[in-house]
Amino acid sequence: MNKALAGAAAALLAVSLLAACDSTAGEQLHLGEKIRIGANVEATGGLASLGDPASKGIHLAVQQINDAGGINGQEIDLTALDNRSDWGRASALTTQLMTQGKVLAVIGPTTTPLFATTASISNHQHIVSVAGSACGSEILQPTEETAGSYTFRTCISDDQQGATLARLAFEQLNAQRAAVLQLADVQYTEDFAKGFRDRFAELGGQVAVSQPFPGGAPDTAGIVSAVTANRADVIFIAGPPTEGAMIIRALREAGLNVPVLGTDGFDSPVLAQSVPPELLSGVYYTVHYTALDTANPKLAEFVEGYRAAYSGEEPPPAAALAYDATLLVADAIARAEQPTGVAVRDALAATTNLQGATGLLAIDEFHQVHKQVQVIQLTNGAPNKVLYVES
């Protein structure tokens, strides 16, 4: 069976399960000696680079919670399923976990495309789904429908990260004129760029250059010329680190030493491998967590636990975000008035001041996570400071 037919078959299975089950699963009492939670992650397939560490973060959080006595004295019974990075299978597994598995909440799917496909199932079943790395702006928009939904996430959205970088540029770096350079025809970079442009203009700054560039070979000479001619005093690169490194090198070699801002994709060894360290000062980019955040006690517990559990591996951001998604669910279940999906949703929506690995977490009225955005500053190619900016 080819991929298209397999996806269609899985989607059909999800629909048939929906039709056959009680549409108010979230109102049923979930009783038993253990608390059932599901995980629906991209452990294999094309999105496994995010889903596999997310799965590890979820398992670590569950283990730590159970070792500490569980939730109100009850151990978590985790059912973790691999959606194989397939949208139809992801939908079918969400339905399976909520109807047959009788879980109180589902962690995942991990990524925006797959999480978006399961949102309607979560809302229909009245069972919470919480994503870690699903940061796309097309989900959890500020609407009345979102405010009543059963979907949540632990990452700051891409457009909100862009807006936060605009605040950093205008309020902390005293920039007045910005150049926004964006990888063309990619939703992720469009979200970042739009968030930056809108907020920078709102604050009183001027976007003097707004220029797309193609993947692989940006016109660095043209970019340098445009930035110079329009006297930009800050440059935002909404793109991946490979093209970002090319642009930064060209700017610095041309003598343009204004601050350069980048996306969370810049949290990668690519910059240091591609650009001499002396050219990598005054570069800033968002991160979902950083070892420089020494004031966060939960971060050390997470990092040390991850290394111990997974043979010394360093945890990537997707692991930290999924770990925090699990903490959010466990905290909400502990505070819920009764063990039902509806009560867990209400408790999760009221979350304030929960310490996670990625910061102090709260949930806003549209189910977006609210926390300080962490921005790394590079000096001579090395992260030397973390800045905290309100999202």
Account of the 3D structure:
- By secondary structure, the chain is α/β, with parallel strands linked by helices.
- It has 13 helices and 15 strands.
- It has helices spanning 3-20, 48-67, 87-99, 112-125, 144-147, 158-172, 187-203, 220-229, 241-253, 270-274, 297-309, 317-335, 341-349; strands spanning 35-41, 76-82, 105-107, 128-131, 151-153, 177-183, 206-213, 234-238, 260-262, 283-287, 354-356, 359-363, 369-370, 372-379, 382-390.
- Strands 7-6-8-9-10-14-15 form a seven-stranded mixed beta sheet, sandwiched between helices. Strands 2-1-3-4-5 form a five-stranded parallel beta sheet, sandwiched between helices.
- Helix 7 links the parallel strand 6 and strand 7.
- The radius of gyration is 22 Å and the shape is elongated.
- The chain starts with a helix and ends with a strand.
- The relative contact order is 0.14.
- Mean pLDDT is 92; it is low at 1-22.
Quantity of strands, as a count: 15
Sheet with the most strands? 7 strands, mixed
| Amino- and carboxy-terminal Cα gap | 45 Å
Secondary structural class: alpha/beta
The chain-level mean pLDDT equals 92
Count of helix runs: 13
Low-confidence stretches: 1-22
SSE pattern, N- to C-terminal: HEHEHEHEHEHEHEHEHEHEHHHEEEEE
Overall geometry comes to: elongated
Strand content: 15-25%
Percent of residues in helices comes to: 40-55%
Strand order, sheet with most strands: 7-6-8-9-10-14-15
Q: State Rg.
A: 22 Å
